[in-house]
Amino acid sequence: MGPDFRILIDLHGFPTPPMAVEFCAGAEPYHPYFVEEATQIEDVDELAHLRSKTRVPLATGERLFTKYGFAPICARHLVDYVQPDVVHCGGILELKKIATIAEAYRIQLAPHNPQSSVSTLASLHVDTTAPNFAIQEISRPPTQFFQDLFRGAGPVFKDGYALVPDKPGLGATLDEKVAAKRPYVPANRPRMRFADGAVTDH
Asked: d(Cα 133, Cα 109) in Å, to the nearest integer?
């Protein structure tokens, strides 16, 4: 990829505290954009311990809910990026509140978004209002279907940037006939277990 390509690393909360410290130490010479969920999200003290041991930028938040989940992390300056998900965190207004809390502590906004075209559009609208917005996750490259879904009025993506529609609401109307061509299919996500029967999330 070359030296000018910044990488983002997602550890999904798997490492033990010593493993997280060791991993971040190994990643430090490569200057990652950030390391995401290097600790279990439920343990704020574990995140604080890692913060004291590394200079690598840290990110978390895709599995946190409402401003109350983010406020303690922001107040202690435990991350450099918050990653609220508009679908999980409480919607557009709650995402905006979380962004504002983070801004007060000079923490940047990098919304999580592996979801639909609609959640992408909702996230982008919040991004345009947040002075601390840094980067927006989009799980798949935009396709013609993306534009067709919004009757040609969806966000325009070019060179890594998005031009967001400025009409009322989300700025675009969903074409239900186009959406019907790709009906919802329930995901097959069986519960994952280790060899000893213990449950894991991946």
From this structure: 5
Domain spans, the chain: 61-200
Q: What is the mean pLDDT of each run of 10 residues along the chain (202 residues)?
A: 83 94 96 96 93 97 95 98 96 98 98 89 96 91 77 81 87 88 78 75 64
Strands 161-163 and 156-158, bridge-based pairing: antiparallel
pTM, rounded to two decimals: 0.88
Fold (topology level) of 61-200: TIM Barrel (3.20.20)
Residue holding tokens 């519960």?
A: 191
- What amino acid positions are annotated as catalytic residues? 12, 112
The rounded radius of gyration (Å) of the Cα atoms in the chain is 18
- How far from chain centre, in Å, is Cα 63? 9
Question: Residue 178: exposed, middle, or buried by beta-carbon count in 10 A (0-12, 13-18, 19+)?
Answer: middle
What three-state secondary structure class fits 97?
A: helix
Residues paired with residue 36 on neighbouring β-strands, in sequence order: 10, 59
Give the DSSP letter of residue 71: H
11 is written with which tokens?
């550890």
**H/E element holding 54?**
none
Burial of 97 (0-12, 13-18, 19+ CB in 10 A): middle
How far apart, in whole angstroms, are the C-alpha atoms of residue 68 and residue 47?
17
Answer whether 92's CB lies under 8 Å from 63's CB.
no
